[in-house]
Amino acid sequence: MLIAAILVLAVGTYAFRLSGVLLRDRLELSASLQRMLPMSAAALLAALAATATLMAGSEFAGFARPAGVLAGTLLAWRKAPFVLVVIAAAAVTALLRLAGLH
Amino acid sequence: MGTLYRTRAQVRDIGALAAASMAVGASFGAITIAYGLPAWVPIVMSVTIFAGGAQFLAVGLLAAGNPVAAVVAGLLLNARHLPFGLAVADTLGARWRDRLIGSHLMTDETVAFTLAESEPAARRRVYWLVGGSLFVCWNTGVLLGVLLGGATGDPDALGLDAAFPAGLIALILPSLRDRSTRLVALTGAAAAVLLTPFLPAGLPVMCALLGLLTLIRPGSLPRHPTPADPEPADTPAGAVRTASASSDVPEGEKC
């Protein structure tokens, strides 16, 4: 049962990935619809980032994580290098937790 | 800024991401073992599913003895790869070998890094570089986590749970300079967060596509492109509005 569940999830995930790639050829998309593809991707990535920042399960994740992400976002907005953004976000969150703030 | 500088900066950025993914992979391996699941489970999952968010979600439900819920939640969360595939299909090109292998390497980070590039050749290079290094590092991390167990430490203590969303935000930030994209993305993100307490796990992220509804402006006149919101020069603004309006409805109905 365990292996069946894992394989169904694996095959289904791969099917989503491949069907998007293959469907692109079949769809005759107008220029405006083509423009919506990166927009959809940006919306999904923004939603992932937002839920991963604010939520743990269906509850609020606490303050340490959003504070770290905010620090990283400000650095990214000021055009800091990606590596600095990632390290600063982790460091702020880790330090806040070390200080007992969750 | 020369090509060498950009390439070196990019390798450094991807290296940072890969190192973080290895640490999170190690925690995935360790957590799965701590749940009392067999050692092959995290390894098989990571190689075959290769989607961190869905793996963490599914393994918790598998450990709770609820495999059906694990599959449903995992598939709902991973349905986003279909629109991702549409967005990066041109980057993967027409060769079957590239499409079949490249599809498996598609992750949030691969897509975000790829779409952050504007040149087709750079997109191609970044896609394979990010996809390949994440696949290797994620699976190596999981294996280490299984072998070392709890010795890998708590990734939350290192703040890694903040590193990934911050990285994604850094990657999509440039695309948010476009006014319509910003509205779509921020509305979608808000919808996903607000719906999270009420919808089954996995579904809220897909509801981000509701953000596309913001492209409909009731009774809007043909729009004039603004400097912050460039349109393709050969597209009449009126056609853009009408076409996106008619296509939005089925997207919204998904949720």
Q: Can you give keywords for this protein?
A:
heterodimer, A: 102 residues, mainly alpha, two-stranded antiparallel sheet, 78% helix, 4% strand, B: 255 residues, 2 domains, 12 helices, 68% helix, globular, disordered C terminus
The major beta sheet of chain A can be summarized as:
2 strands, antiparallel
What structural category do the secondary elements of chain A indicate?
mainly alpha
How many domains is the backbone of chain B divided into? 2
Order of helices and strands of chain A: HHEEHH
**Which consecutive residue ranges of chain A, at least 5 long each, have pLDDT under 50?**
none
Q: Find the count of extended strands of chain A (DSSP E, 2+ residues).
A: 2
What proportion of the residues of chain A is helical, as a percent range?
A: over 70%
Q: What pair of chains forms the biggest interface? A: A-B, 79 and 103 residues
DSSP strand content of chain A:
under 5%
Strand order of the largest sheet of chain A: 1-2
Low-pLDDT residue spans of chain B? 226-255
- Report the mean per-residue pLDDT of chain A as an integer: 94
Estimate the global geometry of chain B from the Cα principal axes: globular
Q: Whole-number radius of gyration of chain A?
A: 19 Å
Q: How many helix segments of chain B?
A: 12
How many DSSP E strands of chain B?
0
Oligomer: heterodimer
Q: Please give the alpha-carbon distance between the first and last residues of chain A.
A: 38 Å
- Percentage of helical residues of chain B? 55-70%
Helix tally of chain A equals: 4
Overall pLDDT level of chain B: 85
Protein name (chain A): Branched-chain amino acid transport protein (AzlD)
InterPro entries (chain A): Brnchd-chn_aa_trnsp_AzlD
Pfam family, one (chain A): AzlD
Keywords (chain A): Membrane, Transmembrane, Transmembrane helix
